[in-house]
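= Protein in question =
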Amino acid sequence: MAGYAALTEVYEWLMPDAKLPPAGSVAAFADVVQSLPPNARVLDCSRGTGQLAVGLAGLGLDVVASDASSGMVRRTRELAEEHHVSLRTLQARWSELLRHLDPSTFDLVMCVGNSLTHAEGASDGVGRDVRVAAAGRTSRADLADVGARARQRLSA
């Protein structure tokens, strides 16, 4: 986890330019977001520095943004303040989510970007807790190739 915690300072540098503004992050998932009811409750777990969570909150959705890194949670709070939106942040690993949240209360569970690359074995809950949190809900998970993004930025 120590390596992941150090990413806070460079995380946004590694993001595609189109996803840096919160609205751009939401636009990347328009297919899922469009189907949500007004005031839907969304869990954005392992959300990095918060672009997607803040963008969703900007749409008037009830957002909980979780991450294992205190630095990522701090940056999410700062970004929410910069965009004048309200959301709940939670510092928690995947394996801890169910201790803090009732999965039946979410309309959508998001786990996007490079989150899975930071899992520390099956005990981190990738195979169990995220699926449980998303059970019976719309969910979206994907992977980002941050290494390719860093190589692209460094060669520019």
